[in-house]
C-alpha cells in the first residue's frame, strides 16, 4: 500500500463515488464507515488490524471502538479533504472487516452540523470559539470545529439583518444522497412539511409542525464533498 506525495489532491463527491467504496460514504469532506463486529473482542481485532495498516501507510484514521461496532473516519488533514490516500486505506479496511465477518450499513451514516444564521459572522465567531474550545476551519473561514472530533461543526450562515429572529439556530444534517427521499418522506409522515427544494440536491428545507427548520444536505451540487 505505497502512497506517494502526489496523492494529495482533494477528491470531490463524484470522484469519490466513482471509486465504488461499498462500506463508505463521504459526509462533510470525510469518509465515514461503521462496521458491526458482533462482539467487543472482534472489534479490538479489527482496530489492531486498522492500526497496523495505518502505520504501514503513515496515514492514520480516527477510530472509535464500542460494543459491538467500530466506527472509522478518514480524511487527509494536511490538505483538508478526502484524497487517494484515504481511498486506498478505506479499501484495505473494508477487506480487513470482511475477513473478520464484520458488516456495514452505509445508508445509516450521517454527520451533524449546526448552522447559526448571522448578518456578521466575524462579530460572533470569536465568542463561540472561546466558549466551546473550537478552532476555525475552512477557507474563507466560515465555520468552527471541535478539535477532538466529538461534537458537531458550527457553520455561520449569512443572512439579512433582523431585529427579532424567530429562529437563530437550525440543524444541517449531511446524509448520503441515496437516503434523502426516505428521510423526507419519514419527516412529512411524522407531521412535518417540505418548505423548499429549490436548492436540491445541495439541500432541502423542512420544518416541524411548529415551524422549526432543518436542512437535509448532500455533497451533490457542491464544489467540495
CATH-assigned fold name of the largest domain: 2,3-Dihydroxybiphenyl 1,2-Dioxygenase, domain 1
- Derived from helix and strand composition plus strand pairing, the structural class reads alpha+beta
In one word, what is the shape?
A: globular
CATH class of the largest domain: Alpha Beta
CATH superfamily of the largest domain: 2,3-Dihydroxybiphenyl 1,2-Dioxygenase, domain 1
Give the overall average pLDDT: 91
Main sheet specs: 8 strands, mixed
> Order of strands across the biggest sheet?
7-8-9-6-10-13-12-11
Order of helical and strand elements:
HEEHEEHEEHEEEEHEEE
Helix and strand layout, with pairings?
Elements (H helix, E strand, L loop, with lengths): L12 H6 L6 E3 L2 E7 L3 H18 L4 E5 L2 E6 L9 H16 L3 E2 L6 E8 L2 H12 L2 E3 L5 E3 L7 E6 L10 E6 L5 H10 L3 E4 L6 E5 L5 E5 L8
Parallel strand pairs: 6-9, 10-13
Antiparallel strand pairs: 1-2, 2-4, 2-5, 3-4, 6-10, 7-8, 8-9, 11-12, 12-13
Helix pairs in contact: 2-3
What does this structure look like?
This protein folds into 2 domains: 13-108, Transcriptional coactivator/pterin dehydratase (Gyrase A, domain 2, 2-Layer Sandwich); 111-217, Roll (2,3-Dihydroxybiphenyl 1,2-Dioxygenase, domain 1), CATH 3.10.180. Helix 2 runs antiparallel to helix 3. It has an 8-stranded mixed beta sheet, covered by helices on one side. Strands 1, 2, 3, 4 and 5 form a 5-stranded antiparallel beta sheet that branches. A hairpin with a 2-residue loop joins strand 1 (25-27) and strand 2 (30-36). The chain has 225 residues and is an alpha+beta fold. It has helices spanning 13-18, 40-57, 84-99, 121-132, 180-189; strands at 25-27, 30-36, 62-66, 69-74, 103-104, 111-118, 135-137, 143-145, 153-158, 169-174, 193-196, 203-207, 213-217.
Amino acid at each position: 500500500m505505497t502512497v506517494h506525495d502526489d496523492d494529495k489532491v482533494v477528491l470531490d463527491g463524484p470522484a469519490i463515488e466513482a471509486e465504488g467504496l461499498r462500506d463508505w460514504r463521504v459526509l462533510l469532506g470525510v469518509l465515514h464507515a461503521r462496521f458491526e463486529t458482533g462482539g467487543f473482542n472482534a472489534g479490538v481485532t479489527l482496530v489492531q488490524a486498522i492500526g497496523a495498516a495505518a502505520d504501514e501507510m503513515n496515514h492514520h484514521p480516527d477510530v472509535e471502538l464500542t460494543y459491538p461496532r467500530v466506527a472509522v473516519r478518514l480524511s487527509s488533514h494536511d490538505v483538508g479533504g478526502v484524497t487517494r490516500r484515504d481511498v486506498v486505506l478505506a479499501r484495505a479496511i473494508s477487506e480487513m472487516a470482511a475477513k473478520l465477518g464484520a458488516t456495514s450499513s452505509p445508508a445509516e451514516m450521517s454527520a451533524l452540523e449546526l448552522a447559526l444564521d448571522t448578518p456578521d459572522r466575524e462579530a460572533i465567531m470569536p465568542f463561540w470559539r472561546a466558549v466551546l474550545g473550537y478552532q476555525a476551519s475552512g477557507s474563507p473561514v466560515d465555520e468552527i470545529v471541535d478539535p477532538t472530533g466529538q461534537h458537531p461543526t458550527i457553520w455561520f450562515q449569512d443572512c439579512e439583518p433582523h431585529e427579532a429572529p424567530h429562529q437563530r439556530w437550525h440543524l444541517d444534517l449531511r446524509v448520503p444522497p441515496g437516503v434523502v427521499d426516505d428521510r423526507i418522506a419519514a419527516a412529512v409522515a411524522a407531521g412535518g412539511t417540505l418548505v423548499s427544494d429549490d436548492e436540491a440536491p445541495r439541500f432541502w428545507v423542512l420544518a416541524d409542525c411548529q415551524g422549526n427548520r432543518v436542512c437535509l444536505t448532500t455533497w451533490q451540487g457542491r464544489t467540495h464533498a
